[in-house]
Design brief:
Length: 334
């Protein structure tokens, strides 16, 4: 399988992209990885005896977080981000991975690859692993504004992702809202509730934020403004709790002794909920497998984003979303 990697995307590029690619090939040497970016910078981290399955494609431009996402395709056509998506469009590779500018990936992928037939808006889905399998929140940033029928599409695409890629069969769907009652929320969420209830037998109703991880819903639907806020709050909260625990452990000898006894448990929990273990988020709705990794991704996160891309290709995600949208959206066209 051939996967293009935006080596210049992310806070620690290109080092983590190169190391992540090498680590991925140490696990699966059947991969063909195409690293796009500044040749000289990449070679600083790429050993002279690097795996033959790593192919370097030089580019002359870099997309920064200061660039306007909607302008990148026109203003920086020779960037690693744009060239990587073009490789996917041309069929040279099977998937594209980037830890770079999310807005630029979204816009460039949508305009270059096009949307899957029937898709009104592509969406980002964030996968959260839990004891019972996993949950996906969708959308988490691609669409700060959305309408009820677009939320319905998000539910279709996220459900198919969980079913075909994460192997969570017959996922249940919940609508993130400020209350559990059907009449809660803004007009957008009240209308979305009606559509989801009509379309999905697996719809369980509204889910309040305090119940996101404990509800029976596997798919949690919201607009991108709400989803992005939730994800970033969770990231900050987890970091804060981790730092506080470490500070408390240093306060007393008894805490240090207890921490040693609990260390295996804490490590297991930390690994399970570490976003680096799962990789990036799939960009659902574009006509090609695109994985958007966290901007602060390390080598492990890049490696796992590569494997996530492979899972999406092997799971026929694009084809199944196309079929699923056709089945669900006939009576719900915008």
């Amino acid at each position: 399988m051939k996967i293009a990697l935006d080596a210049m995307g992310g806070d620690f590029a290109p080092e983590v992209a190169v190391l992540g690619a090498i680590e991925a090939l140490q696990v699966d040497n059947s991969l063909e990885l195409y690293l796009l970016g500044n040749k000289n910078l990449i070679n600083e981290f790429l050993p002279s005896d690097h795996p033959e399955h790593i192919h370097l494609i030089p580019t002359t431009q870099v997309v920064s977080m200061q660039d306007k996402g909607s302008r990148v395709l026109k203003d920086k056509p020779d960037s690693s981000l744009v060239r990587g998506i073009k490789l996917l469009k041309d069929g040279v590779v099977d998937a594209f991975v980037s830890a770079g500018h999310t807005g630029a990936v979204l816009t460039s992928a949508t305009l270059t690859l096009g949307r899957i037939e029937g898709t009104k808006r592509p969406a980002l889905g964030a996968y959260i692993p839990i004891e019972s399998g996993g949950k996906m929140i969708c959308d988490v940033g691609a669409n700060p504004d959305a309408n009820p029928r677009q939320l319905l599409q998000f539910a279709v695409m996220a459900s198919l992702y969980l079913d075909h890629v994460e192997k969570i069969k017959n996922p249940k769907i919940g609508l993130i809202n400020i209350g559990a009652e059907p009449g809660k929320g803004s007009e957008l969420y009240r209308e979305a509730y009606t559509l989801l209830k009509k379309e999905f037998p697996s719809f369980i109703g509204n889910v309040e934020s305090r119940d996101l991880l404990t509800s029976e819903a596997n798919v949690l639907i919201c607009d991108g403004f709400v989803g992005n806020t939730i994800i970033k709050f969770v990231e900050g909260w987890v970091t804060l709790i981790s730092d506080l625990v470490q500070l408390k452990i240093k306060e007393k000898i008894s805490y240090k002794i207890g921490a040693k006894m609990l260390y295996p448990i804490l490590q297991s929990i930390s690994k399970q909920y570490d976003y680096e273990e799962h990789g990036g988020s799939p960009l659902l709705g574009v006509n090609g497998v695109c994985i958007v990794a966290h901007g602060s991704s390390n080598a492990k996160a890049i490696k796992n984003s590569i494997f996530l891309a492979k899972k999406c290709v092997n799971g026929r995600l694009i084809t199944d979303i196309r079929i699923g949208l056709a089945e669900h959206m006939d009576n719900n066209s915008n």
